[in-house]
């Protein structure tokens, strides 16, 4: 049994709110009703949600304002469920951060399918490795922003140099042959062109030594290849 999936239902019409909660329960998830924008904001502050179903016309605070706040603070999937059918509203909501837009009156099976679909997608994204920082000695790489710092100073690497460095930092004890490096980074078969790899390794060493000339980061393992010096 997986973790409980909690879905916030923000809809001021009691009958529609209960109908949406029933759809959610039948799918094996856990709904929480909110009947105004203000109440919704309280629930959003209280705990983490896996999804929000959001009406636009609400007392207290509009669905549009709530969507803007959710989009600023998190990446929870938001499905708008609204009687507004005009294309302009729909496009506006999707641009603001909604993941989907369902118009009333809605088909129960469709709502159920779309909830499942967005939950699957968001859970797949959440299962991706969260490692965004690689650190070795005084080198720090932010793999999301693709930036490299040595002793807190940012270095400019080419895309290939960056990929080679990340490869070394991901497996600091491994000896990489030139064939390993070439096929991992260039994604092509290696035909013994040593020069390409040598030039890139030399460039990386030079750029690192500008900041810290006393440290040898990449060592040559004679007859085998290269590895990070531990």
TrEMBL record:
Positions where 4-aspartylphosphate occurs in the chain: 55
Keywords: DNA-binding, Phosphoprotein, Transcription, Transcription regulation, Two-component regulatory system
Keyword Transcription regulation part of the UniProt annotation: yes
PROSITE patterns: OMPR_PHOB, RESPONSE_REGULATORY
Residue ranges annotated for the Response regulatory domain, each copy included: 6-119
Listed SMART domains: REC (SM00448), Trans_reg_C (SM00862)
Gene Ontology biological process terms from the UniProt entry: regulation of DNA-templated transcription
InterPro entries: CheY-like_superfamily, OmpR/PhoB-type_DNA-bd, Sig_transdc_resp-reg_receiver, WalR-like, WH-like_DNA-bd_sf
DNA-binding region, residue range(s): 131-230
Keyword field contains Transcription regulation: yes
Gene3D superfamilies hit by this protein: 3.40.50.2300, 6.10.250.690, Winged helix-like DNA-binding domain superfamily/Winged helix DNA-binding domain
GO cellular component: cytosol; protein-DNA complex
An annotated Gene Ontology molecular function: transcription cis-regulatory region binding
All copies of domain OmpR/PhoB-type, residue ranges: 131-230
Subcellular location: Cytoplasm
Protein name: Response regulator transcription factor
Organism: Fredinandcohnia quinoae
Taxon lineage: Bacteria, Bacillati, Bacillota, Bacilli, Bacillales
């Amino acid at each position: 049994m997986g973790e409980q999936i909690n879905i916030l239902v923000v809809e001021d019409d009691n009958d529609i709110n209960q109908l949406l909660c029933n759809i959610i329960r039948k799918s094996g998830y856990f709904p929480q009703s909110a009947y105004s924008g203000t109440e919704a904001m309280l629930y959003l502050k209280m705990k983490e949600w896996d999804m929000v179903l959001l009406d636009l016309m609400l007392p207290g605070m509009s669905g549009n304002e709530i969507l803007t706040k959710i989009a600023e603070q998190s990446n929870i999937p938001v499905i708008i469920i609204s009687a507004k059918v005009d294309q302009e509203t729909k496009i506006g909501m999707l641009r603001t951060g909604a993941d989907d837009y369902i118009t009333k009156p809605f088909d129960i099976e469709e709502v159920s399918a779309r909830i499942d679909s967005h939950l699957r997608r968001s859970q797949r994204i959440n299962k991706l490795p969260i490692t965004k920082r690689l650190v070795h000695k005084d080198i720090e790489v932010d793999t999301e922003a693709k930036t490299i710092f040595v002793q807190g100073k940012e270095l400019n690497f080419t895309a290939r140099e960056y990929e080679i460095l990340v490869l070394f930092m991901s497996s600091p004890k491994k000896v990489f042959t030139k064939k390993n490096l070439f096929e991992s980074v260039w994604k092509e078969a290696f035909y013994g062109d040593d020069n390409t790899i040598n030039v890139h390794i030399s460039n990386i060493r030079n750029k690192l030594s500008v900041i810290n000339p006393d440290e040898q980061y990449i060592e040559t393992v004679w007859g085998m290849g290269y590895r990070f010096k531990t």
